[in-house]
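Could you help me review a protein record that somebody else here produced? This is what I was given.
***
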Amino acid sequence: MDALTLFGLFAVSAMLLCYALEDRSHWYVLGFAGACALGSVYGFLQGAWPFGIVEAIWALVALRRWQRNLKSAH
């Protein structure tokens, strides 16, 4: 397994973990956004640009959700 594949495995594993734990804390939503950004980088580095674009959009959606969660908590 090469370094790029390990990076991709880390990114999607982090996405799965953070998604599963989102109900526990708003920080997991932020973690999901970051993991999606890493997944996007992985997609572009691998040459799968449609995957990279979709993951970038997911990162933005999750970041927006995290911001809304912060506003509603205060």
The chain has a mean pLDDT of 95.
